[in-house]
Write a structure and sequence with these properties.
The chain is α/β, with parallel strands linked by helices. The protein has 12 helices and 6 strands. It has one domain (30-290). Strands 1, 2, 3, 4, 5 and 6 form a 6-stranded mixed β-sheet that branches. The protein is globular. The chain starts with 10 loop residues before the first helix and ends with a helix.
Amino acid sequence: MEIRNNSDVPSDIKNQEEKSPHERFRDSKSLSVTDFSSLAWCELQQHYFFIAGGRKETLAMKIGSEIHNKLELQEHDIISIPTHTKEDIWGIKLYNLIFGIDSLFINLKTRELPIFGFVSGLFVFGIIDQIEMKPVFDDISRDELVISDTKTRTKQYIPKYVPPSVKFQLMLYKKLFDELVQGTFDEMKIFQTLDLNPDLEFSKELANIVNISYKEKEMKEFKPNLRNLMKVVINSFGKVWKSCNILEVNYKFQKDGSDLGSKYFDYDENQLDNYLEKTVKYWKGDRKPEGVPIEDAWKCQNCEFADNCEWRLNKIKEREQNKRALLEITNGQSKLRLN
């Protein structure tokens, strides 16, 4: 890793490094659920990925996306709509959210459901793989809304445990979904954060679809814009209830997409809150990213940043210093015995 004095660093690079990760990598706007959960694997690795412009798509990631698309197509058709403004982009997200809630009531299941909300003032957006109404493992009078995430495996069996990054991903999904159900979000704050004009009408293609879907159903003076579509979102979530405290991770075999089974775990609000408190400090620039502890050093074996990782190099240096110190103490004790 090249070491330079501050005076040798160009001013534009200095300015970037002085910004918080939220400002630097996300332009102070929307964060994804994955932006939070991925830090549970190794904060420094993710930080280096952000600096590099993101992860490169691997073959495994490509296959995983294909399997997700096939699963979604089993539930509904997908059409492409041209977008001309950022309001169009978010209009499609809200429309898909409304469609997903409707599908949940009609088919008792929905896939690829967009959700959003705030975490300590930071706007967060995510897409839940699946929510399904089904019985859970206790005696209850009705089916529960079970949130699940689909993961693909190269090996034809499920893992022994659910990784922390996956747990935090699903728990944050549940937190955001339940807050939408409770209706506690401030839509104007969302529009302001994302720099959106809620009264700007959608472009022709999207406006036609929105009008067909909601003009007759909602109100005669319905205008196809974000403000009115958000009202439909609020009404849609008013019909559902909070999700189940049992979360599911479903595994598919990469080779043929066959089902390998699922693992389940309980939602832990305190654990999630503590994790979010820590990761928010990173995103707001209140602390630097951390590497993995020594017991998790095996993660470095396949990390493309391992050779130049400051955290790893410092840990190796500390370990060598501790070895030398121990050796000096041992030699000194040996001399004491001999004298």
